[in-house]
From TrEMBL:
The record marks R70 as: Transition state stabilizer. One of its GO terms (molecular function) is heme binding. GO terms for biological process: hydrogen peroxide catabolic process; response to oxidative stress. This is Plant heme peroxidase family profile domain-containing protein. It comes from Miscanthus lutarioriparius. Keywords: Calcium, Heme, Hydrogen peroxide, Iron, Metal-binding, Oxidoreductase, Peroxidase, Signal.
Length: 104
């Protein structure tokens, strides 16, 4: 008998949760804010720059590809240059695999 009550209570809880979710208003529809040609006016050569740098780093060593993509082509392009400048003052050359030396 005890097991039956627990099952009934948990079924009731699931039903209540489903009804609550179903009764919630749907969020307003939004349009995507990302654009594939975002840098078309400010940096028209961006694709060729990225292609060149990725190829250069790939030929140098495979280890730095993810770090280069994230730090150079994400943080700098998005405008987090202040973070990069602050980091450049206290970075460890060995830990950064030497790639920051050309930027700082």
């Amino acid at each position: 008998m005890e097991k039956r009550r627990r099952g009934g209570v948990s079924s009731l809880m699931v039903l209540a949760a489903l009804l609550t979710v179903a009764a919630m208003p749907s969020p307003p529809s939004v349009e995507a804010a990302l654009s594939p040609d975002y840098y078309k006016d400010s940096c028209p050569d961006l694709e060729s720059i990225v292609r060149y740098e990725v190829t250069r780093k790939k030929n140098e060593t495979v280890v730095t590809i993810p770090a280069t993509l994230r730090l150079v082509f994400h943080d700098c392009m998005v405008g987090l240059n202040s973070w990069l400048h602050a980091y450049c003052q206290e970075y460890d050359e060995d830990a950064a695999f030497g790639w920051l030396s050309g930027l700082c």
